[in-house]
TrEMBL record:
Domain (SusD-like N-terminal) ranges: 95-213
Domain RagB/SusD: 302-565
Protein's organism: Parapedobacter indicus
Alphabetical list of InterPro entries matching this protein: SusD-like_N, SusD_RagB_dom, TPR-like_helical_dom_sf
Protein name, as recorded: Starch-binding associating with outer membrane
Amino acid sequence: MKTTYIVLFAFFATLLSCEKSEFLNKTPLDAITEVNFWKTSQDLALFLNPFYELFPGWSSHDGGPFWRDNNSDNMVPSVYNTRLGGVRALPQTGGGWAWNNVRNINVFHANYQRVIDNMGGRTADVDQYIGEGFFFRAYIYFDLLQRFGGVPWYDQPLGTADEALYNPREPRNVIADRILADLDQAIQYLKPDAPDFRINKYVALALKSRVALYEGTWQKYHAGTPFGVQNATPETYLQQAVDASLQIMNAGRYQVAGSSVADYVSLFNQSDLGANPEVIFWKRYILGFNAHNGQRFLSIIGGATGVSKSLVDAYLCTDGKPIAVSSSYEGDANLTTEFRNRDPRLDAIVFAPGDPINEDLVFERAPVHLGGEANTTTGYQIQKGALPNKQLQQADFGSTTAAIIFRYAEVLLNYAEAKAELGSLNQDDINKSINLLRRRVQMPDLTMGSITVDPRWDFPALTPLLNEIRRERRVELACEGYRLADLMRWRAHDLFVNKRPKGAKFNASDYPGFSNINLDENGYIDYYQDILPNGYQFKADRDYLDPLPVNELLINENLIQNPGWPNQ
C-alpha cells in the first residue's frame, strides 16, 4: 500500500479524535499526494494523528476505562474471560497478530528525513514528531510483547516480496530492549512541554517505567518455566523502571492531586483534566463530536458486570490493618457494615447505600435481580468514574468524561515495586511514593518495621513488604485496566485457578420475590456457579501468552508456536 493511502485511510479514522480547529487547518484530502506530502512538520503531525487512537478510552456504549479490569479477578462480567477460563480457541487468522500499525509507523520513520531535508534542517517541532514516532513504535511493540512474547522486529516498511517478512521471532528480551531503546530516543526528542493533547517527554518516561517493570518482573517470576528468558537479567530492567520513575518524580511538575477521598473521586469523573497535577496524559471528549454514554453505564445501570469480593476484601480498614485481623472490621452481612471503617477508596469505586446516583436518586441496593445490561453480577456495583448528574446519565451521547492514559500514581507505584524487587527500598522511598497515595485519603502510612501480618495475603511466599506494595497497587489502580498485566507478569495464576470469583453476601429481604440468584454455601453471590462449576481453568503452561494463528505458521515456517499451543 502506498504511503498516500495509509495517510488517507488513517486520517478518516481519526477525525473524531482531533480538535475541530486542528482539522480545519489540514490540507484538503484531495490534495494529499506523494508530491506534496513529507514537506513540512505539519505533514509529520498529520501522519501521526491516527496513532493517538491506539490509546484506550471510551467507546459509545460501555463503562470505558473502568471496565478494563473485566478481564481479571477484580471484576466479574456476565460473560467470563476465556483466557482466565482456559478455553481460548486456536485462531486460524488474526488473534492479535497484526502488523499494520508496525508497518505504518515504520513508513513514518522511513520518510521523516525528507521533511528535514525539505525544511533545511531539524526544528523543535520536527524533533517533537520524531520523538512521537519512536514512542508509538515502542507502544505498538509493547502490546505485541504482552500478547505473544518474542516477535519479529521490523524497523522499516516492507514490501510484499521482502524476505524479511519471513523472519523468525526474536527472544522477548531482545524485543524489550528495542522497545526501551525506542523510548530512550523518544525521551531525547520529545518536548517537555508539548502542545495540548500531544505526548511529551514525561509520557515517554512513564511508558518506559511501565515497560521496564513489566519485563523485569516477568523475567524474575517466570524463571524456570516455559515462558522464562535464557540468561535473564531482571535487575537490569527493574533498575531502568526505578530510574525512569525517578526522573518524573524529580522533575517537580506532577504530584498526587488533592488531600481527600473527594479529590481521588474527581480524578475519574471530570471532563477537563488539563489542570490536574496528577494527570500526565489524558484523552478529551466533546459534546456533539465524540461524546459517549459512559455516565449511563456507570450510574443508573449495572452494566452486566460487577466488582469481585476478592477486590473488596483487599481494602484495609482505617486503622491500616487487613480485615482478617482488624478490630474495626464490622463484617460483610451487608454493604453498610462491610464498607464502614474501611479505606475510603473502597466506597470511591463501589456504590454503598446512601451514595448519590444523581440529584434525584440515592443508591439502595445493587440490581443483581435484573437481566441484561441493567444487571450487576456481584452485588458490588462499580462507582469509579461515575458523576451524579441526571442530565449526563439520560442524554444520548451526553457524557464527556475524560479518559486518563497515564497518571502519576502509577509512576509512584512502579517506583516502589521496582525498588522493593531490587531489595533497595527504604522508608524514605515509601514516604515519597506509596504514603503519598495513602495520605491523600487519610489512610495510615506504610511503615517498614511494623507491617501487620495478614493471614490472607495473596502471596504468602513473598515478603510482607512486597505483599503490601502489591495490595496498594491493586486498590489504588482498581478498575483502570492494570490488573491482568500484573497477574501475568507476577505469574499469579494461583490466585484464581480452580476458583470462581464471588460477590457480596446476598440478603433476600432486599429482593423480595427473587430467588433465582446463584449463591455459594456461605450465602455469597456466585454468578459463575453454573457456567464454571470447577472455576477458572487457566493453564499455567499455556495461557500466559497468546497463540500465534495457524495460517501465519503455515506461511512462515520460521515462526515457532508459543508454549502449550498446537500448530494446527
